[in-house]
Design brief:
Layout: E1 4-8, E2 12-18, E3 21-29, H1 33-46, E4 52-59, E5 65-69, H2 79-88, E6 94-101, H3 108-125, E7 129-133, E8 135-142, H4 147-156, E9 160-166, E10 170-177, H5 181-189, E11 195-198
Antiparallel strand pairs: 1-7, 2-3, 3-6, 4-5, 4-6, 8-10, 8-11, 9-10
Helix pairs in contact: 2-3
């Protein structure tokens, strides 16, 4: 099972024209559905004279959720080809919105599918795509007696420290690559006096 995922680093734009119709495309990195709603609302406000604001998104790194919306275009001619580009590029935590200005000539089913697919693809071609690790977050609690051993493991395993607390007792919240999580957890559990539990970053 893969422990990486692809997403985009920042928003990007694209464009496709056919028979007078203009398809403006926008790709955004997103974290949740509320953020998606706000972006779509903002684009509808900005491009209020456009006839359609079609979109698709994928969210999540373990189980991926997704949605596609045709916004009044014939069924599966807009949202689905946009979603198809997200799948084709292997992206998640990404939203694409395509805003259509009608040019007076009907494009037909295949013409629409082609237009929305190409518009979405152009936005992604202009995006910076990155591969990120899927990480597991742990919290380890220990006393000053175990500090050297714990820090040694963190250094040797190249673990990413997210939060440290060295007041009365010690605790470190750290991230580890998902595929390495079980092995690293066992290393800590083998040290007497060290407690390790799942945590949120």
């Amino acid at each position: 099972m893969s422990d990486t995922y692809n997403t985009i680093t920042k928003s990007s734009e694209g464009l496709f024209k056919d028979k007078g119709s203009k398809f403006l495309s926008f790709a955004f990195p997103v974290q949740d559905e509320q953020e998606i709603k706000e972006i779509i609302h903002s684009l509808k406000k900005k491009y209020h004279s456009a006839r359609h604001h079609c979109y698709a998104w994928r969210l999540g790194v373990g189980e991926i959720r997704f949605r596609a919306n045709d916004d009044g275009e014939p069924s599966s001619t807009a949202g689905k080809p946009i979603l198809g580009q997200l799948v084709s590029y292997g992206l998640t935590n990404t939203l694409i919105v395509v805003v259509r200005y009608f040019g007076g000539t009907l494009l037909g089913t295949s013409g629409l599918i082609n237009a929305y697919r190409n518009a979405a693809s152009d936005a992604l071609n202009n995006a910076e795509i990155v591969e990120n690790l899927i990480e597991t977050i742990f919290k380890t609690d220990f006393t000053y007696n175990e500090l050297n051993k714990v820090m040694s493991i963190i250094k040797n395993e190249n673990l990413k420290q997210l939060k440290t607390d060295f007041r009365e007792n010690c605790s470190i919240i750290f991230a580890v690559r998902k595929s390495e999580a079980s092995r690293v957890k066992e290393i800590f559990k083998d040290i007497f006096g060290v407690k390790i539990t799942p945590a949120k970053s």
